[in-house]
Amino acid sequence: MKLNVNGIEIKVDVQGPAGGDPLLLIMGLGMQLTGWPLELVSDLCARGFRVIRLDNRDAGLSQGFEHAPRTPFWRVVMRHALGLPILPAYRLADMAADCVGVLDALGIERAHVCGASMGGMIAQHLAARYPARVKSLALIMTSSGAPRLPQPSLKVRRAMLKRPKSQREEDVVPHITRLFKTIGSREIAQDETLMNERLRNAVRRAWRPDGTRRQLIAIAADGDRSALLAHITAPTLVLHGAADPLIPPAAAEDLARRIPGAALDLIPKMGHDLPHALLPRIAEKIAANAARAKA
C-alpha cells in the first residue's frame, strides 16, 4: 500500500497478526523495504509482531525528490571535510517524521522500532524526538556520527562511491554484488545464487542512484547525533557485526555508552549485512529487547 505522509507518498508493507505488537523496520542507505529478508519478517511475525516495513523517501517505490536542486557531490565532500554546513534536499529528522506519519496513518500509537545502518540513524531521531511513540529500539550496524570514531578503509570508501558502467541491469547487479561482498560478512558462508536473485529483484523493483546520493548527503548533513542520544528512553539494543568494515564496531560501543541502559551485542564474523545464517539470532535479539519494554 501507499500512504500519504507529510505531503509525500510512502510505500508500506504490513505483515503479521492484525492484533500483533507493532514493529517498524527502517532500512538503510538506498535500500528498499525488501532489504529486510522475508525469512526475518516471517520469524518476527511468528513471534507475534505486526511487522511494518517502509521504503524511505527517495528509495524503492516511495516518492522521490528529483525536483530538489542538485549540488555537485565534490562540493558536499569538501564542505563535510571542512566542517562547514551542508544543505540537503531533506534531513534524517524529516525521514523520522515520515515514520511517525506512517504510524499515524496506520492508527498505531506506539511501536517497537528497529533500524539498520542509515535506518538506525533515522531511528535515533525517532526515539529521541518522539519518545512516546517508541516502545523499544533496536539499532543494527549503525553509528552516532561522532567525528572521532574509526572510519571505513579507503578500499571500502572507494567501493561505496564507485558507479556501475551503465544503468542497465546487466551492469548494475554485478556492481551491487561486488559492493555487498566488500562490506558484507566475508567470513560467513553465503548462498551466492540467492544473493544474486535478491539483488536482481531489488534492481527490477527500483534502481534509484540519485535518491541514494541525496540520502548520503542527508547523512553527511546530520553530523554528530551524540547529544541526541541522551534523550532516548526506550529500552535499546545495539546489535553490530564485529567484522563490519563499513561502520567499525567501535561505533556500536560508542552508541551503547551514550544511550542510557542500552544493551550491546557484537556478533562475531558479521559484516555490514544481514546474512541468512544469523537471521534467527537477530530475530531473537529484537524480540528479547521488545520484551524489556513489557517488563
Description:
- It is a single chain.
- By secondary structure, this protein is α/β, with parallel strands linked by helices.
- It has helices at 38-46, 73-81, 92-105, 118-129, 154-161, 169-183, 192-205, 209-222, 226-229, 250-258, 279-294, and strands at residues 2-5, 8-15, 21-26, 49-54, 111-116, 134-140, 236-241, 263-267.
- The protein has one domain (2-294): Alpha/Beta hydrolase fold, catalytic domain (Rossmann fold, 3-Layer(aba) Sandwich).
- It is 42% helix and 16% strand.
- An 8-stranded mixed sheet has the order 1-2-4-3-5-6-7-8, with helices on both faces.
- Strand 5, helix 4 and strand 6 (134-140) form a beta-alpha-beta unit.
- Helix 1 (38-46) packs parallel to helix 11 and helix 2 packs parallel to helix 8.
- The protein is globular.
- 42% of the residues are buried.
Summary, kept brief:
The protein has helices at 38-46, 73-81, 92-105, 118-129, 154-161, 169-183, 192-205, 209-222, 226-229, 250-258, 279-294; strands at 2-5, 8-15, 21-26, 49-54, 111-116, 134-140, 236-241, 263-267. With 295 residues, the protein is of the alpha/beta class.
